[in-house]
């Protein structure tokens, strides 16, 4: 079976590493000459709107999937004429746009921060008056890793901010006094079977995920699964979805969904019986889903900008390096380490060891 | 770091799957147009003696390693002029030839079946008179998976057999009444650090490995490690080596070594903290070695000729598919499954499930 992937970054790379042992081959559509998934499959180097190359991809592969949600809607619609596409155009349409996403949460009874659609500075002023400060103004589309958003704390922050974010459609979200950030990675098969990984505690810095720790019997696991199942069923979703929540007052408020394998699920490569990457491929290919049970206690630490010396990372017991083969760039995710340990105490000690490498 | 691999079969494929997350790139030299490692790196399609392509490979990579031991000595010698080669030409020279191999065992005080060098039918007749029957006549080089050998039980089997095996240099080995076959996979770094995986029980059928089960505290582990360490040190070996033994009278008799990652170590991908493939690459690259400790209880079953339906293999809990992406061929190793279970009882039940798929 040959899988087409829109995007050829580290998520595509890890999909190929997981799918090759299943007998799958890969083709990546990515305009970047140095797309880091390229060594693991065919690289169609073209823009995401290039219909000649999209048609070529559709002709070559059995199905198409995505490694990022900002794919143009036209790309998905065009491909869907010729080849099965998972997740669906509708799932991508919702997940790509913060307004549609938040509206879906509200419609399904999933708690989410107060929000308002912002199409002008006047809209913003009115929404701030209603929702209050602090609040966060985010572009409705194309934001990631803290990009395309601004925290508003004072009236001064509000003035002129719509233009500052490019005068594009935005969403204002009320600030929630969260005690933690968690994500649930779920997978749903073509037949509707759904499985959930354990909730993951996430720590961000400057909007970029730094540390994910798989939880042990988290008290909000069942609640999170209930919320995520509502979205998966509503969208008749196929594949892996990650759902980010704020922990607020012992409950959960929905932040956002990612209709794809997700950074907070990278620990599953070593830390779960079947990784999010293999499970995504099983789902889209119509294969039985794999177990989402943990193997030991696991955490994931991102390498941002550069990977520490390979000899130092590999010298740490219980540590598994994932180098994305990318060049150094400030703020870029260039690799991660998974720690898989026999107990939480060991895990905490190992996290400190890897953090020292990153800091040093 | 770019690694050159002589041979582009499933061992090269699994080396690349293990090395890519370490940030390594791969180039495979293999004359086969459909070399199954090719999708994971650069494919130099040329004969093993093609000096132009060997020179190109040497220029492109940081070091060269092998996925099979029958590489011509000239190839190794040629490459060694330009680029580091691990394991060394001397290790390959020994491992490639059953006479040199058995002589090394004898010189190092490692018990091994009686053997005699056979260069003619007269040599064979004399050796049979001395060693007795049953015995096994094997070509000194190029044998694998039961090819290039013949079991001799009667005087009739002996007559004309030297010519039957091609009138090439052979070794006659006395038959040992073994109760089991085990292998020890070891890894030795450039600095001499050595680690051993648990002993593996192997079951062959028609000379081809069918089932490997990682042992639990095998009583002969320490003895096997002692024997293997002697060979590794004598050869100043760098990389993974597999050492096959017969279990005889509660002791071990050396059968043969493979100077490379080995089929009986495939279970380590899921079943050990660090797989034989990653550890081989760590060793040859001069990185710290990874832990050889088990994760759960594991076994490996080979798929010979064809891989069962992917949907059926993936439906079995605790089962991890490794499809080599090869075409069907009688007697060809085309894939394997690793079972990683919480205890030996579960493992035995799961082995039976996979065996049913293979049989059916």
UniProtKB/TrEMBL annotation, chains A, B:
InterPro entries per record: ATP-grasp, ATP-grasp_carboxylate-amine, ATP_grasp_subdomain_1, PreATP-grasp_dom_sf, PurK, PurK_C, PurT/PurK_preATP-grasp, Rudment_hybrid_motif
Question: What GO terms in the biological process aspect are recorded for it?
Answer: 'de novo' IMP biosynthetic process
Q: Name one GO cellular component term.
A: cytosol
Give residue ranges for domain ATP-grasp.
Answer: 102-285
Q: Which reaction does it catalyse?
A: 5-amino-1-(5-phospho-beta-D-ribosyl)imidazole + hydrogencarbonate + ATP = 5-carboxyamino-1-(5-phospho-D-ribosyl)imidazole + ADP + phosphate + 2 H(+)
Pfam families, alphabetically? ATP-grasp (PF02222), PurK_C (PF17769), RS_preATP-grasp-like (PF22660)
Its EC top class is ligase
Whether Ligase counts among this entry's keywords is yes
Pathway assigned to this chain's UniProt record: Purine metabolism; IMP biosynthesis via de novo pathway; 5-amino-1-(5-phospho-D-ribosyl)imidazole-4-carboxylate from 5-amino-1-(5-phospho-D-ribosyl)imidazole (N5-CAIR route): step 1/2
Positions of ATP binding? 98, 138, 143-149, 173-176, 181, 204, 255-256
Keyword line? ATP-binding, Ligase, Nucleotide-binding, Purine biosynthesis
List the EC numbers from the record. 6.3.4.18
Q: Return one GO MF term.
A: metal ion binding
Protein's job: Catalyzes the ATP-dependent conversion of 5-aminoimidazole ribonucleotide (AIR) and HCO(3)- to N5-carboxyaminoimidazole ribonucleotide (N5-CAIR). Catalyzes the ATP-dependent conversion of 5-aminoimidazole ribonucleotide (AIR) and HCO(3)(-) to N5-carboxyaminoimidazole ribonucleotide (N5-CAIR).
Q: Which NCBIfam families match?
A: PRK06019.1-2 (NF004676), PRK06019.1-5 (NF004679), purK (TIGR01161)
The record describes its quaternary structure and partners as:
Homodimer.
Q: Which HAMAP family match?
A: PurK (MF_01928)
The text of the family note is: Belongs to the PurK/PurT family.
Protein name per its UniProtKB record = N5-carboxyaminoimidazole ribonucleotide synthase
Which organism encodes this protein? Pseudomonas parafulva
């Amino acid at each position: 079976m040959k899988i087409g992937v829109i995007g050829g970054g580290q998520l595509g790379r890890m999909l190929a590493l997981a799918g090759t042992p299943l007998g799958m081959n890969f083709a990546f559509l990515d305009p970047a000459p140095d797309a880091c998934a390229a060594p693991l499959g065919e690289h169609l180097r073209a823009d995401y709107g290039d219909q000649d190359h999209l048609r070529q991809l559709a002709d070559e592969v059995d199905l198409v999937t995505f490694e990022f949600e900002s794919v143009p809607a036209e790309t998905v619609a065009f491909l869907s004429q010729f080849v099965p596409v998972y997740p669906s155009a509708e799932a991508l349409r919702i997940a790509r746009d913060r307004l549609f996403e938040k509206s879906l949460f509200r419609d399904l009874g999933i708690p989410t921060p107060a929000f308002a659609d912002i199409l002008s500075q006047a809209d913003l002023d009115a929404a701030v008056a209603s929702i209050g400060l602090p609040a966060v103004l985010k572009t409705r589309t194309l934001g990631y890793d803290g990009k395309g958003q601004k925290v508003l704390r004072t009236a001064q922050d509000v003035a002129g901010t719509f233009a500052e974010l490019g005068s594009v459609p935005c969403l204002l979200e009320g600030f929630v006094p969260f005690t933690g950030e968690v994500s649930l990675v779920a997978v749903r098969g073509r037949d509707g079977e759904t499985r959930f990984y354990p909730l993951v505690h996430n720590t961000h810095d400057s909007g970029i995920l730094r540390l994910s720790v798989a939880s042990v019997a988290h008290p909000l696991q069942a609640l999170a699964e209930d919320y995520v199942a509502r979205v998966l069923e509503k969208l008749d979703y196929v594949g892996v979805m990650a759902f980010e929540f704020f922990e607020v007052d012992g409950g959960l408020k929905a932040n956002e969904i990612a209709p794809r394998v997700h950074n907070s699920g990278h620990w599953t490569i070593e830390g779960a019986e079947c990784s999010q990457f293999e499970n995504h491929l099983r789902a889209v290919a119509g294969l039985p889903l794999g177990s989402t049970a943990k193997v030991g206690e696991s955490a994931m630490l991102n390498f941002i900008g550069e990977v520490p010396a390979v000899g130092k990372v590999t010298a740490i017991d219980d540590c598994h390096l994932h180098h994305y083969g990318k060049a150094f760039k400030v703020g870029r995710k260039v690799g991660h380490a998974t720690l898989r340990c026999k107990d939480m105490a060991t895990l905490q000690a190992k996290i400190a060891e890897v953090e020292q490498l990153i800091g040093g």
